[in-house]
Amino acid sequence: MATREQENIQLIREYLKALESAATGENLARFFTTDAVQVELPNRLNPQGGRSDLATLLRRAELVPNLLRSQNYAIVSELAAGEHVAVEATWSATLATGFGSVAAGTEMRAHFAMFFRIENGRIQSQRNYDCFEPWT
């Protein structure tokens, strides 16, 4: 029988796989509590950072296929304690649309530290510390 920590880590692995496949709607919402919140700390791509509720997360997910041809989360390490899960991952994505001086087809890379709080088998909160590799 799996421990709560093992179940929580598995939930996060499945969530990251869903993000890779550009899940939207209920296919993404199923990972979250209805009062879920995601906090993105300031980074090069989003200098002001941000805070999103579930409705905002779902709206933003609808944009992904227009922005990215593909994306991948390679888990470097993961740790669970009770209802908390911490994941270090390397993210890579191929742009479908260029921005600024970055052309469509460019591969972007970042190193993410993600901290989750799980409530009743769903993500209640997520905090991201995203460190993007240089792009021109």
What report would you give on this structure?
This is SnoaL-like domain-containing protein. InterPro entries: NTF2-like_dom_sf, SnoaL-like. With 136 residues, this protein is of the alpha+beta class. It has one domain: Nuclear Transport Factor 2, Chain: A, CATH 3.10.450.50. Helices cover 26% and strands 46% of the residues. A hairpin with a 2-residue loop joins β3 and β4.
Task: Summarize, please.
By secondary structure, the chain is of the alpha+beta class.
How are the SSEs placed, and which strands pair?
Layout: H1 4-20, H2 25-29, E1 32-40, E2 50-53, H3 54-67, E3 68-81, E4 84-95, E5 107-119, E6 122-132
Domain SnoaL-like: 12-124
Pfam family, one: SnoaL_2
Protein name: SnoaL-like domain-containing protein
Feature tags:
136 residues; 6 strands; 3 helices; Nuclear Transport Factor 2, Chain: A; alpha+beta; single chain
Structural class: alpha+beta
In percent terms, what proportion of residues is strand? over 45%
Question: In the residues, how many domains can be counted?
Answer: 1
CATH fold-level label = Nuclear Transport Factor 2, Chain: A
Overall mean confidence score, pLDDT: 96
Helix content bin: 25-40%
Regions with little confidence, pLDDT below 50 for 5+ residues: none
> Order of strands across the biggest sheet?
2-1-6-5-4-3
Number of strands: 6
